[in-house]
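Morning!

As promised:
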Amino acid sequence: MVEAAPVNDLLFGTLALTGADWFGLFLHFAMLSLLAIGGAITTVPDMHRFVVAERGWLDDATFSGSVALAQAAPGPNVLFVAVIGFNVGGLAGVAATLAGSLLPSTLLTYTVARWGEQRRDQRGVRAFTEGMAPVTIGLLLATSWILTEPTRTSAVGWLLFAATVVWMVRTKWSPLWPIAAGAVAGALGWV
Amino acid sequence: MSVGPREAASAESPAAGPASLTEIFLAFNRLALQGFGGVLPVAQRELVERRRWLTKQEFVQLLSIGQVLPGPNIFNMALIFGDRHFGWRGGAAALAGLLAAPLVIVLALTLLARQAAHLPQVAGALRGMGMVAAALILSTAVKVSGTLRGNAMGLATCIALAALTTAAVGVLRWPMALVLAALGPAAWSVAWWKLRR
């Protein structure tokens, strides 16, 4: 029992989720997968609403930390979804969130891609891309705002924020440096 | 299986394309592991410049299809690229290449961070990195917003739509599905109207 506990935590997390919880987690991420026209990161506000505000499975700091950790690791950005899943429910949580995030959009891409490719210039398809562009930007702004939640009162945090935006918009240098700077400033207790 | 627009551009395509599923897997694995804070720029370097599996034009075409569809752009691109060469197995090989190694790395990092979560330095580092992550996403929004100037709906409508979305989803915390169900058709209709000849 004592020895089995860590393995169990690794597989299923420490929250003792029910079958309905697992299914709800998968279903919510699957629903968001189909809304993720500007990329998975645009669905962060609704993931936060579900996982933090509605279910209380993670706190603000763990949620923002999950997204931050994925940004610091190599690979596609969408892997932040796996970190959220892992923090909610271990490897089973990873399966639920990652499958939810990837299956619906992948199946849709597979069936629809050729159709869209042929009609890329048609008015209906163009109206869709033009119309969704500002909505996507609004979703990115909302995502950014929600991730600042745990650190909004920190002046050094906002300084770091502003410096990172200047770094990314004005230069072509790697985002790894601001991430490292954030980690160091945070570890020193400044943020 | 499906060949698509590759034939049209094959004259300017310098090389043939991937020879095997393994080659697709390795190529996407390699570009995924090089991608910090986004894989797309690396994909361009790897697929167009290094391997010469795509011309620049083919790459941009593939990207614009990936962007119209929901889901991560790079996943959609990988899937379509793999499918063009080896059918669904090619798509699966490309996706597996993108995901497998980075997934193991990011979960190992998460475990490490959790083991050390009691240390104030680790909790602090994650807080600092969280603020930077928020700023990285705002930067993406800033860069992309340049394209709104050429948007068919006009700049004022675009700003209003973006602000409404931010307020509803980010501040009021309304469910995204409801917000998109309301704003999506409205935006589409305005764009449709403005695109008339």
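The CA atoms of residues 159 and 191 of chain A lie 10 Å apart.

Hope this helps with the figure draft.
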